[in-house]
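Contributing new records

If you add data, match the layout below exactly. Sequence lines come first and carry their own label; structure lines follow with theirs. Keep one chain per record. Anything else will be rejected by the validation script.
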Amino acid sequence: MVDLKNMTDKELAQRMVKYIEQLENLMCDVSDIRNSRSPVEPYRVENIRDIYKKSKEDIKADAHYMDLERNKKRGNNLYNSFLNPSIREASAYGFTSPTNSAINHKFFCSIEEAHYKLTKYYGLDEWKKIAQ
């Protein structure tokens, strides 16, 4: 488990950029499959499900870490103001589809909701500026 509260703003931003970009790529892959008129290779579907599951678990683990009282951080900083609510909301409201569900509109919407929650307070561009 990573000790988020002791990470620098740059490290936190790099983590968020990774999550956001991963979800954007996942949404593109799901859209491609949904819009494909030809049969989709089973390994591609399994790959999407694996990435979905890993993203869901990682964000859920970060949210759980932030929920623990000993990991509360005092002060108005990037961790409290932007990272904490983004991760917790993405965990709570995103990833609502089961990890083995069909690649359909509901699956796409669950990824999109998590992506929205991660960029609700700070967009990808703002996170990238901090991550540099």
